[in-house]
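User: I'm putting together notes for a lab meeting next week and I want to include a structural view of one of the chains we've been expressing. I don't have a solved structure, so I'd like a prediction I can at least talk through. The sequence is below, exactly as it appears in our construct file.
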Amino acid sequence: MLVLIKGAGDLATGTAVRLHRAGFSVVMTDIAQPTAVRRTVSFSQCIYDGVAEVEGITARRAANGEEASAILAAGEIPVLVDPEARILDELPFGAVDAILAKRNLGTSLTDAPIVLALGPGFTAGVDCHGVVETMRGHDLGRLILEGSAIPNTGVPGDVGGYTKERIIRAPADGPFEPVARIGQKVELGDVVAKVNGVPVAAQLTGIVRGMLPAGIPVTKGMKSGDIDPRCEVRHCFTVSDKARAIGGGVLEGLLYFGRRTGLWND
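Assistant: Thanks for the context. Below is the predicted structure for the 266-residue chain, given as structure tokens.
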């Protein structure tokens, strides 16, 4: 089955890794200037660099359906700048996995034989066939067949005893200037980034797990980085527990609805 994933940030990438390893062919789309802070584990990085690798799986930027097909034939994952998902009209997708945007940006139940959505903003049976829970906690990764995911609380999940303190937010509008690098250990109070000369300090001691690249335009309060208090450098370069759980929920949904719709009988 050919699966389209709208978005190519770290959670979408973790999903793509699980599906690719399970034998699905995956195509991904994103915006022209992605803002994934965990860019070392985001296939969206290939939009800037042409190619990106996560856990031994390679993604390449594609300009159209023809290039995407060639990349798929090479055993890799194509990523297109295509926020409207026009690629749906070019390739025979059997399933669509929607972007995690906390609201529906255009996903429809009729996009493909199987349409799954991640997180809040979608209702199973209305916008999609199934919803995968993205909130950290007991239900993370659960396939929801009726209703919606837990509403967005606006509070980041607890990691190592910290929630909102983990997030590096832009202190002003303007081009982003990282001071710390991904994988670097920082102490509470260290300046980790600047925007138009305005510094932002770390609110905890930990490893910088994510950081926007230099020059990306940001707005005040925008998520621009992530500090992990667990201080494991390898966490910066591998798929997270949350992304793996969400990917598992998507895999379950594809198998569940594929069996119910008879797609696996083809």
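A couple of points you could mention at the meeting. Residues 18 and 253 are 13 Å apart (CA to CA). DSSP finds four helices and 17 strands in the chain.

User: Perfect, that's what I needed.
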